[in-house]
Amino acid sequence: MSGLRNEVLEASIRILGPATRQVLSTRLDSRKVLLSPEGLRRDWRGLAVQAEIDEGSISSGKISDTECFFQKWRAKGGTVGELLKFLEAMDRFDVIDDTLEMIYGDYDKSQSEVGGLRTLSPPPIDQVSLYDQDILTRDDLRNLEAGRGLQHYDALVLHADAERDINFVQTLVEKLEGEYGLKLCLKDRDLVGGLQLETEAVVRVITERCSRVIVVLSPEFLASNMNRYFTGFAHALSVD
């Protein structure tokens, strides 16, 4: 797109502030009947198709469909330039006009908060601390140190601490990771130690970082209020 600030186009959609996302959600949540000239839905579904995110995986629960889409797309590394390109293909120039200045403001704010670092570019190892709020797992640390983005998982595995549950999970992990090449997240194995709010971290993994949640049901699992909360939360978001 010509005439726009290149540095903003290259920035991650993580820079988008709550007010900007709210406007986007307000304009894109409502399902449109007419298609764009390119045959795309003119609502959040058009974004999902272009971002190659399964529409069926997006179910708002207590948040908007558009916000749910952005949570999933953030984990895949979507950029502002892609967002504007997608909206253009959807013939939603009205949304671009309504949000472009807000996006510029979000970008400028992000630059001042990180001392002028490019928000899109993965931070060098000595600047990882600037992204502490997004570091949830050990894979995040390794990826950022290697110049890659935050880790996305095929599934989060929830289980009780009972010995038989742990033994079953070990077999499950060996099968899914070893034979099928899936990337799993286990709370005790993968979450960064010392997180002040472990519950919030697990919720963010469910909403932002994984495609599915695997629950190993057992009497011990169901006896935990926290495990029941995580399971109910994932169900409310319609995470598989």
Report on the architecture of this protein:
This protein is mainly alpha-helical and 240 residues long. The chain is 51% helix and 6% strand. The protein has twelve helices and three strands, in the order αααααααβαβααβαα. A three-stranded parallel β-sheet has the order 2-1-3, with helices on both faces. The radius of gyration is 19 Å and the shape is elongated. InterPro entries: DEATH-like_dom_sf (IPR011029), Death_dom (IPR000488), Myelin_different_resp_MyD88 (IPR017281), TIR_dom (IPR000157), Toll_tir_struct_dom_sf (IPR035897). It is found in: Cytoplasm.
Q: Give me the secondary-structure category.
A: mainly alpha
Evaluate the radius of gyration: 19 Å
Q: Describe the biggest sheet? A: 3 strands, parallel
Alpha-carbon distance between the two ends: 36 Å
Strand content: 5-15%
Ranges with pLDDT <50 over ≥5 residues? 114-131
| CATH classification class of the largest domain | Mainly Alpha
- Treating each run of at least 4 consecutive H or I residues as one helix, how many helices? 12
